[in-house]
TrEMBL record:
GO terms for biological process: endoplasmic reticulum to Golgi vesicle-mediated transport. CDD domains: TRAPPC6A_Trs33. It holds the Pfam family TRAPP. SUPFAM superfamilies: Ligand-binding domain in the NO signalling and Golgi transport (SSF111126). Belongs to the TRAPP small subunits family. BET3 subfamily. It comes from the Eukaryota. It comes from Rhizopus delemar (strain RA 99-880 / ATCC MYA-4621 / FGSC 9543 / NRRL 43880). This is Trafficking protein particle complex subunit 6B. GO terms for cellular component: cis-Golgi network; trans-Golgi network; TRAPP complex.
Amino acid sequence: MSYSDDSNHSLPPRLVSEACMDLFLIEMVDTICRTTTSEPDGDNDAIFFKLEYLGYLIGQKLIERFTKDRPRFVDTLDVVKFICKDLWVILFKKQIDNLKTNHRYVWFPCGIIRGALASLGTQRTKRVYSHST
């Protein structure tokens, strides 16, 4: 199938293999960890900040893409329902069942959720703090 500029044909959506996306994310996190720790002032907090900020930007873009044809959410409950039912399935291919976590490697997903909340007009923020156990 060839792509043309003919307006009579609609183009199929551009999709990326899940395996390719998983490998890309693994390499991205590894690269951020390696390059940040090699900086003179690089430490774990700098890595966490970079991962959360990257997730934040991705969360904003995901909301732009997946809510463009929806009416604006009127209250916080609608926002939470959208994130828990729709966005969670898009990200993790399963419905949210429990918000418990082991607090390990959650900076990127937390950033995605913070970016989504910000794009949906929610003013509250939740930060992830690391601690050694």
